[in-house]
Amino acid sequence: MNTKNSNLIKEVDRRRTFAIISHPDAGKTTLTEKLLLFGGAIRLAGSVKSRRAQNHAVSDWMEIEKQRGISVTSSVLQFEYNNCCINILDTPGHQDFSEDTFRTLMAADSAVMVIDCAKGIEAQTKKLFHVCKMRGIPIFTFINKMDRMGKDPFELIEELEQVLDIKSYPMNWPIGNGRDFKGVYDREKNLINLFGEGNHGQSKTRTEKLNIEDSSLSSLLGDELHSQLKEDIELLDVAGDSFDLDEVLKGNLTPVFFGSALTNFGVEPFLESFLELTTPPTPRDSNLGMVDPKKENFTGFIFKIQANMNPTHRDRIAFLRICSGEFKKGMSVNHVQENKKIRLSQPQQFLSQERVVVETAYPGDIIGIHDPGIFKIGDSLCEDNSKIQYHGIPLFAPEHFCKVFTKNALKRKQFIKGINQLSEEGTIQVYKQPNIGVEELIIGVVGALQFEVLEYRLKNEYGVDIIMESLPYQYIRWINGEGFSPDSLNLTMDSLLVEDQDLNPVVLFINEWSISRVAERNESISLKEISLRNK
Ligand code: G4P
């Protein structure tokens, strides 16, 4: 093995790239802040997102995010901890931007699912979970806000199985609830971590560790809680799922941790255990088979494009996930889909708003590359001429549709340019009725707030005012079928045949009933909920 290769192997093995998923308000931002704190990336955890003080997170790049006080785009955060190089793919919390989160999950090697102990599994968590499940990546569960009154822990564990259909293994177990929350029992180490109020989670806190058999425990917890704990643990050992790392890595079993991000309780043990159990970058599927991250040839794919993130930069950045080999600043790579050589001269890494130029990067890392308008989501880049193409990023089914026109016919050119760019970024999906010109475009979005982003960005970046006419469709299906012909398609009165941006035939539906009617009437075709870009 040469030195270059041994360095690559070492760097791959210490990478951990994951996304944190949750329903808004479950505590994703707070947990991210605490993880960064352990990595020494920030001194006071509150400095990443001091909501009340500044009303927006540092990662809120766009003006609209500041106005609405929500996070529209995903950012990437890198930090070091215990000799691991950690990449957290931060994702927008608001459900209207879930498509961006879905795509970001394509770049993650594992996911951390944050659940509010009082609310259990909520709608957005469920959606995001299914995308992780589809990819078969390991999923770790952090049940948060244990300092507050919540559901019974057994009920929460049952919800994982009933609602998400995933087996679970509690790594620790809570003692008491709400005001009486005393701490957690670590099942592996057979130790109790006692909960103390600490200093409101602004910096690292200390926890006392005691053995479950420790004589002082009954007086600390009270007889009732102590015997309840012993009963619970016995029940878990006998009736619960057993721990199996293979099943964790396949995404069939989720290790569960109870804690409180705000008070910084249970966060560091969670991080340590997570880093040990989760996987470094693993081989990825491509048109040429599985690609080993430790292969020397550099390869990667683009999973996100973001224009005008910062008004002082006013540029377009393509986010590239490195899949194999070593990345070096200034290297020439092959843009597979365009069959062109390009030089990656100003690669950047992100710590929220701060951008730093990277000299080298490794599989698992995300780098931002300047995009003069040549990249599309799902494009692959590789160092040699092997023409490796990673499997496309799914187009997730929009649920809201409207017709969009420009108010001023003289601005048509800018209008089309803006629409095309926003579609390449994946902010919107564009459809066209066959035989009708681009004057009448149909726009589909996963969350209705994306329409506001469209209107705002067309006005602010392209100087175009638009009129939006909302359409009643709520479902979309891509048509698959040998020899499909639009003329032979037998639709219901309320459904509409259109073409997507890659000219694939798709049908828009008002309700699920119409979908099943159309499926019955057209047996030779199949209707798909997800389509792949750059197949
Ligand atoms: P999100 O990114 O998932 O949307 O959630 P975020 O971290 O912003 O947390 C949502 C709210 O829940 C915040 O309160 C936060 O302080 C609180 N929170 C997070 N973790 C815990 C926890 O472990 N225990 C308790 N009790 N609360 C927690 P907020 O009132 O919306 O904001 P703020 O006033 O705290 O800034």
From TrEMBL:
One of its GO terms (molecular function) is GTPase activity. It is found in: Cytoplasm. Keywords: Cytoplasm, GTP-binding, Nucleotide-binding, Protein biosynthesis. Coiled coil: none annotated. Residues 13-282 form the Tr-type G domain. Signal peptide: none annotated. NCBIfam families: prfC, PRK00741.1, small_GTP. HAMAP family: Rel_fac_3. This is Peptide chain release factor 3.
